[in-house]
Amino acid sequence: MKERNQRCRRIGDQLKVEISAMLQREIKDPRIGFITVQDVEVAPDLSQAFVYYTVLGNADEKNATLAGLNSTAGFMRREIGRRLHLKRIPEMQFRYDDSIDKGEHLEEVFGRIRKEESGEQSD
Q1: What CATH architecture is 2-97?
Q2: CA 30 to CA 93: how far, in whole Å?
Q3: Of the candidates 2, 7, 22, the residue with the CA atom closest to the CA atom of residue 83
Q4: Is the pTM of this model over 0.90?
Q5: Where do the domains of the chain lie?
Q6: Predicted confidence (pLDDT) per residue in 80-100, tens digit
Q7: 43 with 90: CB under 8 angstroms?
């Protein structure tokens, strides 16, 4: 079991590198914004890869990025298969990683709390 988890992690890391490189150099879809691939989790049977990403922009820009990613998934999958020589190439599912958004929200809340505690007026 541990060996399988290590293999999945290794393949996930390889996928992250390849997907990031393709998004930076090869994929020119104008819908895809300034994107960072945060992590790739691969299912134990290699049937699926969950690609977690962040992107700058408002909700419409984030939705457009997801649409662009979904439309390039077939190309990326073929390229990954060719480059990594995998017997089974996982289907990619893109998931927005909102941890940065949540962190920014918490910083705002803590900032307001600090202002209130220090007696300052909030905006």
Answers
A1: 2-Layer Sandwich (3.30)
A2: 20
A3: 22
A4: no
A5: 2-97
A6: 999 998 888 999 999 999 877
A7: yes
DSSP string, the chain: -HHHHHHHHHHHHHHHHHHHHHHHHT---TT--SEEEEEEEE-TTSSEEEEEEEE-S-HHHHHHHHHHHHHHHHHHHHHHHHHH--SSPPEEEEEE-THHHHHHHHHHHHHHHHHHHHTPPP-
Band the pLDDT of 17: cuts 50, 70, 90. Answer: very high
Q: Sign of the C-alpha dihedral, residues 123, 102, 104, 72?
A: negative
Q: Are 53 and 97 in contact (CB under 8 A)?
A: yes
| Structure tokens, 78 | 């073929």
